[in-house]
Amino acid sequence: MTDSIAAKRGIADRASGADITEQAQKRMRHEIVQKVPAGFPFTHDTLAMLGLVTRLHAFQEAASREIAADNPFASASLLRSLAEVVALLSYLIEKPADLRRVSLLAGDRDRFSIGKIVEAANRQAPGFKAVYAQLSNWAHPSHIGGNTSMTVSDDNHFTWQSNPTFKDDDDACTMYLWLLELTEVAGPLWCRLWDAASGEATA
After folding, report:
1. CA distance to 83, 167, 173, per residue, from 86 (Å)
2. From residue 83, how far is each of 152, 184, 192 by CA, in Å?
3. Which of the four pLDDT bands, split at 50, 70 and 90, describes residue 19?
4. 136 vs 18, 23, 53, 72, 126, CA distance in Å?
5. How large is the C-alpha radius of gyration of the chain?
6. At what angle do helices 114-124 and 128-139 cross, to 10 degrees?
7. Alpha carbon of 54 to those of 11, 61, 96, 174, 203: distances in Å?
8. Closest C-alpha among 52, 55, 78 to residue 67
9. Domain coordinates in residue numbering, the chain
10. Are the beta carbons of 14 and 176 closer than 8 angstroms?
11. pLDDT digits (tens, 9 = 90+) for 74-128
12. Does the structure show a pLDDT above 50 at 137?
């Protein structure tokens, strides 16, 4: 993804990125609230589903804060965690019986293989795996982002600071773009999983 894609989605700068992603998060939460019927049964599966909403909300808000705080490493790490929840939703749509593995009945042995759930997400949205790999490069110790806090002026004056910053606005806009796209797919996937888990899925 490039900053030109971000611009096509209306993310022209950090301010517009913050606004657009905030609105997307509100739409996602509204979509989920509309999906859950009043008086729904409290089962291990439904409680697990609500727990996934909490995870989505947590990582979305935290990623928004860190992008605004000019911290690319924390932003990417949180977006990676958000991507893993989205990937899990994709996987569970294929295997709704595995909801028990994130329920109160689950234990350490029930943990998911990240590789498998990322592959499931890539089947739903080709290109997901490539974005996840980019986020992982930021989150893991690597060469990515190694020069974000360094500048060299025209007269070869070198400046370095320990606190992280985005190299430029384009990088921040790309993070907002990833947040937007993950948020936009999260709501429909969650609703599909609710239907699948409830036995209401249609062909």
Report:
1. 5, 28, 21
2. 34, 12, 17
3. very high
4. 22, 26, 23, 12, 17
5. 19
6. 140
7. 26, 11, 19, 24, 28
8. 78
9. 3-141+169-198
10. yes
11. 999 999 999 999 999 999 999 999 999 998 888 889 999 999 999 999 998 889 9
12. yes
d(CA 24, CA 124): 20
| Residue 49 CB partners (closer than 8 Å, separation 6+) | 99, 190, 193, 194, 197
How far apart, in Å, are the Cα atoms of 198 and each of 178, 192, 202?
Answer: 30, 10, 11
State how far the Cα of 13 lies from the Cα of 17, in Å rounded to an integer: 6
Calculate the alpha carbon distances from 56 to 4, 69, 151 in Å. Answer: 27, 20, 35
* Contact (Cβ atoms closer than 8 angstroms) between residue 72 and residue 142: no
pTM given for the model = 0.86
- Which H helix or E strand runs over 37? none
8 Å CB contact between 149 and 83: no
- Helix ranges restricted to H, the chain: 3-8, 14-35, 44-68, 72-94, 114-124, 128-139, 169-198
Q: For residue 202, with 0-12 CB atoms within 10 Å meaning exposed, 13-18 middle and 19 or more buried, which class applies?
A: exposed
Nearest-angstrom CA–CA distance, 43 and 162: 48
Name the nearest CA neighbour of 145 among 114, 166, 173.
Answer: 166
- Helices 114-124, 72-94: crossing angle, 10 deg rounding: 80
Question: What is the number of alpha carbons within 13 Å of residue 22 lying toward its C-beta?
Answer: 10
Asked if residues 99 and 63 have their Cβ atoms less than 8 Å apart, the reply is no
